[in-house]
Amino acid sequence: MDGKAKMAAVRAMIERSTSGDVAGTLALLHPDMVFREAQGLPYPGDFVGHDGFLRLVEECAAAYALHVDSYELAYDGERVIAQMQLTATSNRSGRVLKTAVTEFYSFRDGLIADGDIYYKDSRAMWELATIG
C-alpha cells in the first residue's frame, strides 16, 4: 500500500467517522487496531479492536460533541500524520473549545492498525468534559 492509498484511507476514516458512518469507518480499521489516547483525557489509554474503537467513540460522545473544522494529511514514508483543528462542545455546559490534535496512523494488511493521538491541550479537553 503506497502513501497516497494510506492517506486516502485516513481521509475516508475522518470523513466517515465525522458523518456518523460507523460501519464504513470500521471497514477501514484492522480488527486488532489500537488507538492510544493521552492519560490526561477523560477517556485515557489504549482502545483495542473494533469494540475498543466503538467504546472510544461512546466515551468521547458522552463528554462532548466534536466537530472537525479542518485537517491536513502528510505521509512520512511510514505513517500518515493528520493535523486537525477541532471544535469541542461540552455536553455538561455547552462551553466551546477550539483546539488542535495531531494523530499518527500506521497500517497493517492494508488497514489502519494503530492511531497515536495527541491533543494540543489535553488538560483543556479534560476540563471541558469533567467541569464543563
UniProtKB/TrEMBL annotation:
<dbReference type="InterPro" id="IPR037401">
    <property type="entry name" value="SnoaL-like"/>
</dbReference>
<protein>
    <submittedName>
        <fullName>Nuclear transport factor 2 family protein</fullName>
    </submittedName>
</protein>
<dbReference type="InterPro" id="IPR032710">
    <property type="entry name" value="NTF2-like_dom_sf"/>
</dbReference>
<dbReference type="Pfam" id="PF12680">
    <property type="entry name" value="SnoaL_2"/>
</dbReference>
<feature type="domain" description="SnoaL-like">
    <location>
        <begin position="10"/>
        <end position="114"/>
    </location>
</feature>
